[in-house]
Design goal:
With 111 residues, the protein is α+β, with helices and mostly antiparallel strands. It is built from 2 helices and 5 strands, in the order E-E-E-E-E-H-H. The strands form 2 sheets. Strands 1-2-3 form a 3-stranded antiparallel sheet, with no helix packed on it. The longest helix is centred in the C-terminal third of the chain and has 24 residues. InterPro entries: Motility-assoc_prot_GldC (IPR019854).
């Protein structure tokens, strides 16, 4: 069986606030990649619930964080179709993404 690993490294300041987030993966080559935010969700089969890790660096701009959240919802819409073929749920999630994107566009225009 083939194994793949993803590793995250979080550099914290003296107040334990993330300053840098890096990651590497065995299937992504030897390079280390950098991110401003991560959102990891795991389905715990024993607790039968979601466990989450949400981290962002202090240099993550608010507007990018909002876009990151909308992008996550869009990604979940694609996941729900692939995993369950529930196209109606995906359509509703995509509609929410559109509504939120329009809201953010309006904020940026007025900004």
């Amino acid at each position: 069986m083939k194994k793949s690993e993803i590793r995250f490294s979080i550099a914290l300041d003296e107040n334990k606030i993330p300053e840098a987030i890096s990651w590497s993966a065995t299937d992504a080559g030897p390079d280390i990649h950098f991110a401003k935010a991560i959102n990891i969700a795991l389905w715990d089969r024993e607790q039968v619930g979601t466990m989450k890790i949400d981290l962002w660096t202090k240099d993550m701009p608010v507007d990018e964080m909002k876009r990151f959240c909308v992008d996550n919802i869009g990604s979940m819409a694609e996941n729900i179709v692939t995993a369950t073929n529930d196209k109606e749920m995906a359509t509703k999630m995509r509609a929410l993404c559109k509504e939120l994107s329009d809201y953010l566009d309006k904020q940026e225009q007025n900004g």
